[in-house]
């Protein structure tokens, strides 16, 4: 099975728009939206959910007001200032302690040292993940809860389910829309991938963040390519980005021009290659062809 991950060093480079077009161009693939903090691939592909599961990423503490004696040990030990003395009375004391679920880091110290065993420490639902059908094939995606953590674990869940789905349906490729940046969800998105496509833009911040994410792929020894989106907004920096990529041993997948049709395609909930055949749609097709050539070459060189 081959995994293509599309990532970007920063947000707003057009990564998801390119992934949506790749989904239309791929014949046999499972799609996975691993940008769980701000998923938006579904806005273009209009998935129909066929399976919905809760995501449990950690634990949270909760004080059982009826058992609390207001001794204050939990507040004393909490390093995250998550415990407040403003809980309801219980017949024994006028006020009890309360744990702020957002401030709580789930360390469990208060649970261990509560002499009255008045603190519950159970699984916390941090979001949901879904298996859906789209007009371009099956898709696994997710939604992390507000202020919830463990995005890397949720990304791993999405990738694992996407692989299972590909095996069940006999599909040969998983196309992953990764997160921007270089943090935990990005690392969870790219680990063990066949190829990473880095989408950047011709700005100084785009160039800087492209280099950071390229360093990340080198650290994990993952093959990478670079695509400069909206390159004609600043041809000079586009040239510098491609030159820098070549110096780092990263192959250039191609350039995609700025095209106002992208906005119109999004309004119509279509990918660019579905909406039109010229303009940046033709550029994306060329990038896809180069990416697939590299993936096919890599697959052919693997021992059987």
Give the strand tally.
Answer: 11
Helix content: 25-40%
Strand content: 25-35%
Termini separation comes to 12 Å
Q: What is the CATH class name of the largest domain?
A: Alpha Beta
- Backbone shape: elongated
Radius of gyration: 23 Å
The overall pLDDT, averaged over residues, is 92
CATH architectural type of the largest domain: 3-Layer(aba) Sandwich
Largest sheet: 9 strands, mixed
Number of helices: 11
What is the CATH homology-level superfamily of the largest domain?
P-loop containing nucleotide triphosphate hydrolases
> Ranges with pLDDT <50 over ≥5 residues?
none
How many structural domains are formed by the residues?
Answer: 2
List the helices and strands and how they pair.
Layout: E1 2-8, H1 15-25, E2 29-33, H2 42-45, E3 48-63, H3 73-77, E4 83-87, E5 96-99, H4 109-113, E6 119-134, E7 137-144, H5 151-169, E8 173-180, H6 184-190, E9 195-200, H7 204-219, E10 224-229, H8 235-247, E11 251-256, H9 261-267, H10 272-275, H11 280-301
Parallel strand pairs: 1-8, 1-9, 2-7, 2-8, 9-10, 10-11
Antiparallel strand pairs: 3-6, 4-5, 6-7
Helix pairs in contact: 1-11, 5-6, 7-8
Overview of this protein structure:
There is one protein chain. With 304 residues, this protein is an alpha/beta fold. Helices cover 37% and strands 29% of the residues. The strands form 2 sheets. A 9-stranded mixed sheet has the order 3-6-7-2-8-1-9-10-11, sandwiched between helices. Strand 10, helix 8 and strand 11 form a beta-alpha-beta unit. Helix 5 (151-169) runs parallel beside helix 6. The longest helix is centred in the C-terminal third of the chain and has 22 residues, at 280-301. The chain is elongated.
């Amino acid at each position: 099975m081959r995994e293509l991950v599309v990532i970007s060093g920063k947000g707003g480079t057009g990564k998801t728009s390119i992934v949506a077009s790749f989904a239309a161009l791929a014949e046999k693939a499972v799609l996975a939206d691993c940008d769980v903090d701000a998923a938006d691939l579904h806005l273009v592909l209009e998935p129909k959910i066929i399976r919905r599961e809760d995501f449990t990423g950690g634990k949270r503490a909760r004080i059982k007001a009826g058992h609390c004696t207001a001794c204050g040990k939990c507040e004393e030990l909490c390093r995250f200032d998550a415990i407040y003395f403003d809980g309801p009375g219980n017949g024994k004391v006028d006020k009890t302690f309360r744990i702020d679920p957002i401030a709580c880091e789930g360390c469990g110290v208060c649970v261990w040292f509560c002499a009255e065993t008045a603190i519950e420490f159970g699984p916390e639902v941090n979001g949901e993940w879904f298996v859906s059908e789209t007009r371009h094939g099956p898709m696994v995606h997710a939604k992390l809860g507000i202020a919830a953590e463990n995005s890397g674990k949720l990304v791993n869940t999405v990738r694992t389910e996407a692989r299972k789905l590909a095996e069940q349906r006999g599909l040969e490729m998983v196309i992953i829309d990764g997160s921007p940046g270089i943090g935990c969800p990005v690392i969870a998105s790219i680990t063990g991938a066949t190829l990473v496509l880095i989408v950047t833009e011709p700005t100084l911040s785009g160039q800087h963040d492209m280099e950071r994410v390229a360093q990340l792929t080198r650290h994990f020894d993952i093959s990478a390519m670079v695509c400069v989106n909206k390159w004609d907004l600043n041809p000079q920096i586009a040239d510098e980005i491609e030159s820098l990529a070549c110096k780092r041993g990263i192959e250039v997948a191609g350039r995609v021009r700025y095209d106002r049709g992208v906005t119109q395609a999004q309004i119509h909930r279509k990918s660019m290659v579905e909406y039109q055949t010229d303009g940046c749609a033709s550029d994306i097709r060329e990038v896809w062809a180069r990416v697939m050539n590299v993936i096919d070459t890599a697959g052919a060189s693997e021992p059987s």
